Amino acid sequence: MAKKRYFEAAKWYDPLFENVLRGLRMAVVELVPPREGLRVLDVGCGTGAQLAIYKEGGGEVFGIDLSSPMLSIARSKLNGSSVLANGNAISMPFPDHCFDLVLSSLFLHQINPSLRPAVLSEMVRVLQPGGQLILIDFHPQDSRPLKGKLTYGLISAIEFLAGWDHYNNSRDFLTRGGVSSLAGVVGLKICRSAVKGNGNLGIYLIGWA
Ligand SMILES: C[S@@+](CC[C@H](N)C(=O)[O-])C[C@H]1O[C@@H](n2cnc3c(N)ncnc32)[C@H](O)[C@@H]1O
């Protein structure tokens, strides 16, 4: 499903979303600033926007994504000097403990609930001891102010347009408590977080429980 949908959406992704997502990208680099030689993996890297910021700051950047059209946009953005794997996050072609920073944005919510813990554990496998893990995804909230409700409505519409499975996985993700409850399932915890998107998007720095 993801392959087909992102095949259709790849050329529209940056023009539609990148302006809106810029604030999230910058909040990520505030949590873990780029530096020379920082080895960064973006899981479900899409068109490579977050990696481009780390690369500009001197990082060695790596990405993995199921969609070749999304990756081909990422390749053009990163000038081919990065490792971009066309593969599934459930089993990544990277050795154990090889990255200083593993990040993943707007990715986990779309993964089938039964696979989410294994996908998160796979991210931990490739992280160096003492490395950092940042997850950015939809943030569950019991009540939102009006602006937050409107933003939530827009997000729900986009999720619906992305397909039935995508929509159901996304709803399930929020119902189960989003990143914080998923982290708990695999023995991780949230060390720091910031909420954007009128209360709908969370940026979480993850640590060990
Ligand atoms: C909503 S996009 C987010 C892209 C990017 N992380 C961002 O912040 O703009 C989700 C991406 O996850 C990729 N994806 C979905 N399932 C995947 C899987 N099992 N393994 C790797 N990538 C996957 C899709 O192809 C898509 O590029």
Core attributes:
seven-stranded mixed sheet; alpha/beta; Rossmann fold; binds S-adenosylmethionine; 209 residues
Structure overview:
This protein has 209 residues and is an alpha/beta fold. It has a single domain, classed as 3-Layer(aba) Sandwich (Rossmann fold). The chain contains seven helices and seven strands. Strands 3-2-1-4-5-7-6 form a seven-stranded mixed sheet, with helices on both faces. β2 (60-65), α3 and β3 (83-86) form a beta-alpha-beta unit. α1 runs parallel beside α3 and α5 (146-161) runs antiparallel to α6. The longest helix has 30 residues, at 2-31. It is globular. The N and C termini lie far apart (34 Å). The mean pLDDT is 94.
Topology:
Layout: H1 2-31, E1 39-43, H2 49-56, E2 60-65, H3 68-77, E3 83-86, E4 99-105, H4 116-125, E5 127-138, H5 146-161, H6 164-175, H7 178-185, E6 188-196, E7 201-208
Parallel strand pairs: 1-2, 1-4, 2-3, 4-5
Antiparallel strand pairs: 5-7, 6-7
Helix pairs in contact: 1-2, 1-3, 5-6
This protein binds S-adenosylmethionine (SAM).
S-adenosylmethionine is lined by residues 2, 6, 21, 44-46, 49, 64-67, 70, 88-89, 105-107, 110.
From the N-terminal CA to the C-terminal CA, the straight-line distance is 34 Å
CATH-defined topology: Rossmann fold
Provide the structure class: alpha/beta
How many strands, which pairing sense, and closed or not: the largest β-sheet? Answer: 7 strands, mixed
- Counted up, domains total 1
Ligands bound to this protein structure: S-adenosylmethionine
The helix content, as a percent range, equals: 40-55%
